[in-house]
């Protein structure tokens, strides 16, 4: 194998992994922040991503909405409806133990999978992305799949926007304050409940957006809600609760390693990822950038 | 002063002793199980699987219901036991059933001891993630070493000698039902002794208030590892029986779904009550057998809905509701 050929394959694997990691980040970042804020173990987060995927499909195939707008639609619709769940169900269990939260959200996942299977059937969904995303981008020495480049770009823009929102706006400052010390934040007059509803909606909306982006990369069936859940949880736990930087690093490393592992060590790749996660959590229980 | 101490000690001893007394209602599940043997001879295969489900849920109740360890990876031990029993019979030709089960229990206990010793220093979300990741890692290990586990095709060719060298297995699973019932009874007696012992009381203390138990000098980590190991052994025995009775094991014995299902069964029945495992597993598996075939989507939706309702309104599960109703009735009676 020539060096050039080797590099070319390497770049392809890297880009695929990067695109995959970006989707993992977009879906998981909301979970990280909401878990950091309230310590709520939300196993139903993947269900919001799955719902986002189906909203995207429906908007495009039934109403003829263009892809980009459908993604925005999924963000808004799922984000807004998630607040209903948050107020009606989640809010009652903020003070309960992890077990109750796990059980409630597993119950919600089951209901969501069943409901979406009933409406859409268990077969995988596909969408037609716009023409400019189906081709490839020519870099001179090699061409790259346009859709992967698009996903990495969307991911990068979102990382930038979230970083700005988190670090440079008053809303971000309030969220950071509440993650650090909820009681102190409350006593200086921050309405943590409302802040949480807002963050929850934003996080679920982002998950929905990620779900829409993931359709052509990871496939969309109702079991999406549970299939990738462990990966979302790994991003959150390894990155550290409530840390956007941690979520970026963990998601990209996970995406690239998992993707490379599938090409290079198809048999043992997944095993290695879980082993690495366990070792990291044993050494740093609060994650890479979490507060101990 | 000394007098009141003595009376307090005597009261505590009296309290601990009184819980050992068998209540008449405790005979009920066993009478139902024996009655089912005569009443529904055609359903013994399902009955055997239900008994195995009860064993598995009972093992989870020890760690979750009594010690308060929230685990999402209990199927790791069920699967370890299942593969241990299956490989012993299929690859090494050791086909005596009871020693096979013992081997399954020992293998799972070893896995429980090692993982518990490392993982039980952590709590909360970290522990949840660690149990989940450990179980999935084991699953992926089984997947990667398909030469040993048979991969998705599973281990076949499990031949088991007649029970006690005398009772051979019929097509309808009558022998396996009685075999499973006997094993369940033994496991139950052990579990009952454990939870009503001072050690069991210490576990409840750890569940209710970890800091206080540490403050009074209770060896928390050692106790948690002990119960985790015992529970793993029980789950392993359940898995071993599963492998023997089905003559077949696949990776699904280790999967996340099995961990989630046993958790749901136990929650439905009620945690920390021993008999919750009996009711939860029996009702879940009976309903699954009839409803899941009618419409898988409705069954799944129903399970989710019941789970949400249980968490919201009936934290004690079905047995909790029964106890509540009994208390209300008693109050009305007076």
The best one-word shape of chain A is globular
Elements of chain A, N to C (H/E): HHHHHEEHHHHHHHH
Count of DSSP strands of chain B? 0
Low-confidence stretches of chain A: none
Determine the most extensive contact between two protein chains.
Answer: A-B, 43 and 42 residues
State the helicity of chain B in percent bands: over 70%
Describe this protein with a few key phrases.
heterodimer, A: ABC transporter involved in vitamin B12 uptake, BtuC, two-stranded antiparallel ribbon, 13 helices, globular, B: 334 residues, mainly alpha, 0% strand
Describe this structure in a few short sentences.
The complex is a heterodimer of chains A (292) and B (334). Chain A has 292 residues and is mainly alpha-helical. Chain A contains 13 helices and 2 strands.
Explain what this protein looks like in three dimensions:
The complex is a heterodimer of chains A (292) and B (334). With 292 residues, chain A is mainly alpha-helical. Chain A has a single domain, classed as ABC transporter involved in vitamin B12 uptake, BtuC (Orthogonal Bundle). Chain A contains 13 helices and 2 strands; from the N terminus they run αααααββαααααααα. Chain A has helices spanning 3-38, 45-63, 67-88, 98-120, 131-134, 146-168, 170-180, 182-187, 192-218, 224-227, 229-239, 244-264, 269-283, and strands at residues 136-138, 143-145. Chain A has a two-stranded antiparallel ribbon with strand order 1-2. In chain A, strand 1 (136-138) and strand 2 form a beta hairpin. In chain A, helix 1 (3-38) packs across helix 7 (170-180), helix 7 (170-180) packs across helix 9 (192-218) and helix 11 packs across helix 12. The relative contact order of chain A is 0.20. The mean pLDDT of chain A is 88. Chain B is mainly alpha-helical. Chain B has a domain at 25-256. In chain B, helix 3 runs antiparallel to helix 11 (220-246), helix 5 packs antiparallel against helix 11 (220-246) and helix 12 runs parallel beside helix 15 (317-333). Chain B is globular. Chain A binds chain B through residues 35, 39, 41, 89, 92-93, 97-100, 102-104, 106-115, 117-118, 226, 230, 233-234, 237, 241, 267-268, 270-271, 274-275, 277-278, 281-282, 285-286, and chain B through 64, 70, 72, 118, 122, 124-126, 128-130, 132-134, 136-137, 140-141, 143-144, 146, 256, 260, 263-264, 267, 296-301, 303-308, 310-312, 315.
